[in-house]
Amino acid sequence: MLTRTLLPLLLLGVTVSAADWPQYRGLTTDGKSTEKITKPWISSPPKQVWKVASEGGFSSFAVAGGRAFCLSLKEVEGAKQEAIVALDANTGKELWTAALNVAKYDGGGDSGDKNNSGGDGPRSTPTVIGDHVYAMSSQLVLRCFDAAKGSVVWTRDLVKDNNGHNIQWQNAASPLLEGGLLYVAGGGQGESVMAVNPANGEVVWKAFDEKITHATPVAATILGQRQVIFFLQSGLLSVEPKTGKELWRYQFRYNTSTAASPVVSNDIVYCSAGYGVGAGAVKISKEGDKFEAKEIYRVTGNKPLANHWSTPVCKDGFLYGMFQFKEYAKGPVKCVDISNGQVKWEQPGFGPGQVILAGDQVVALSDAGELVLIATDSNAYKEIARARVLDGKCWTTPILANGRIYARSTKEAVCLDVSGR
């Protein structure tokens, strides 16, 4: 998968390090790193390289070319604004900031819910391609910036330019890089899903009449076919990346918010949502050039398989991640057989945090700021290491790039050395 993803970028003259993490959930969009953590933080916390203030929101880091990018809240011209921030990946020093739009998120962390206190803000994660970085704002405006200077190269407003429609709590999805193109959703009738040329912002193809969710699409190869899978209000929609041709669909109930991305394991695709929707999985088959998605299980309700916005990772046919709905601080990490939805084990005390996979270990960031290393063992929960690394509400996905973990809360950001060097 990594080779297929890198090849189109190399043809475009773009250099990508296999150890960089250039977009949401990594280069391969599945939350998996090619790196391994060889020295766990058992007796003492991992070495802190830097820690800086980073206010507001749940945008994760994208790291490439020695820079770390995220969306944050900044005071600009007398108002709280959503902004893209570029940091020196080695020191945490702010290199540049560019305002995107006034921050307004339909309540969220300021809604009065004491269990959901601690701030709100942008949720989308930037995407880096070579010398440029791309950010989708909460208002569905896609911008390309010069990664070194922060100057705007081009702008595409999906609401104004493509008759788009936003969603309650505003956009949270990140632009997906696949095969040298950017994939986004949010346009109007006949153009709700599209592929965009990263060089100039022009639409390569557009199609469908869909309503968006907060979920970021994923790219995967299933039965030999490369595809981009969107999680929309109608359910899952898989398209051929170069043309936008529909490959298959899975009708899946939508209710209020769907934010976890689909998860692919060979020919099985899993998806889940909160607000009583639950989870389901389909097995993809192919006859000739026709694909079919057949449901293999469907579990409704907020237990046992709801993933509100916490996308699991998959290792050897088992899902590992936060399976909960609004179980702040106490929600469990679980191991689930992706083929049948059976829960193999669960461990409480994580809340709606996020996970990634590093080799055969799960890196989990709890909503309280604890970084936990867990073995990918389907027989039992096996904790390897734990350390408190952040203050504030942590609903962001930690990342692993060049031997370092980068993580954020609604208050601060941290870089931790886990290389063992």
Task: Summarize the helices and strands and which ones pair or pack.
Layout: H1 2-11, E1 32-33, E2 47-53, E3 62-64, E4 67-76, E5 79-88, E6 94-102, E7 127-129, E8 132-136, E9 141-146, E10 152-157, H2 158-161, E11 176-178, E12 181-185, E13 193-196, E14 203-207, E15 218-222, E16 225-232, E17 235-239, E18 246-251, E19 263-265, E20 268-273, E21 278-287, E22 290-299, E23 313-315, E24 318-322, E25 333-337, E26 343-347, E27 354-358, E28 361-365, E29 370-375, E30 383-388, E31 399-401, E32 404-408, E33 412-417
Parallel strand pairs: 1-27
Antiparallel strand pairs: 2-33, 3-4, 4-5, 5-6, 7-8, 8-9, 9-10, 11-12, 12-13, 13-14, 15-16, 16-17, 17-18, 19-20, 20-21, 21-22, 23-24, 24-25, 25-26, 27-28, 28-29, 29-30, 31-32, 32-33
How would you sum up this structure, described in words?
The chain has about 425 residues and is mainly beta. The protein has helices at about 1-10, 160, and strands spanning about 30-35, 45-55, 60-65, 65-75, 80-90, 95-100, 125-130, 130-135, 140-145, 150-155, 175-180, 180-185, 195, 205, 220, 225-230, 235-240, 245-250, 265, 270-275, 280-285, 290-300, 315, 320, 335, 345, 355-360, 360-365, 370-375, 385-390, 400, 405-410, 410-415. The strands form eight sheets. The chain has a five-stranded mixed β-sheet with strand order 1-27-28-29-30, with no helix packed on it. Strands 2-33-32-31 form a four-stranded antiparallel β-sheet, with no helix packed on it. β27 and β28 (about 360-365) form a beta hairpin. The radius of gyration is 20 Å and the shape is globular. About 50% of the residues are buried.
